[in-house]
Amino acid sequence: MITRIREVRRARGMTLDDVARRCNPATTPQTIGRLETGTRTVSVGWLNRIAAALGVEAQDLVASGETTQLKVAALLGPGGALAPRKAAIVIPPRADDKQVAILVSGSVGDYRSGDEIWCDTLQPEEYGRALNRDILVPRPSGRFMFGRLINRDDEKLQILPLEAGGRQQVVANPPWLAVAVRLVRSL
User: How far apart are CA 177 and CA 20, in angstroms?
Assistant: First the structure.
């Protein structure tokens, strides 16, 4: 099987050591290198471990006729837009069944009308991961609250609305919440 492990790793700006340490359980850079070059056979288990370490889907690591990627044309920084020194790609994100989206219908806070906010859903034991991030919380009667999670204790979430002058809201025991992870904005 031909893999794109090296290509995706480089696109993410990661070294062999970075990927090896992020694997669960951790492995060695030499092992990742052997899997990249085909010196060692890549199993489905290895593909899943490396994909998780790289933050992509396992199918993004397998070379096929339908791979989705964007070529990097320029790097933008304080000095302006410059051509990359070497070829690079970006792997577009894929949605999974634990994600939800918010469509922004009117500008609020940093969000503009037409934006899409992609969110990962979290269960109560994972709420600590959402501190100081924008979240969506379900409320009774099919309503929702969206704002910045500023504090969490055993049974309550304290949320600061995005509107200027908004008062802090307290929500007790929501069954789930969704934390904003990606902003999609058309120009």
Answer: 31
φ, ψ of residue 107 in degrees (nearest 5) = -55, 135
Indicate if the pLDDT at residue 66 is higher than 60.
no
- What's 130-155 look like in SS3? HCCCEEEEECHHHCEEEEEEEEECCC
Residue 1 confidence (pLDDT): 64
R_g of the chain computed on alpha carbons: 20
pLDDT at res. 171: 92
d(CA 88, CA 10): 7
In terms of Cα–Cα distance, which of 57, 52, 59 is closest to 22? 52
> Per residue in 150-164, pLDDT tens?
999 878 999 999 888
Cα separations in angstroms, 53 against 11, 39, 62, 137: 13, 20, 15, 29
Q: Are 147 and 160 in contact (CB under 8 A)?
A: yes
Query: Which residues are paired to 101 by β-bridges?
Result: 118
Cβ-contact 14, 24 below 8 angstroms: no
Which stretch of DSSP H or E encloses residue 17? Answer: helix 16-22
Q: Are 21 and 52 in contact (CB under 8 A)?
A: no
With 0.90 as the threshold, say if the pTM is over it.
Answer: no
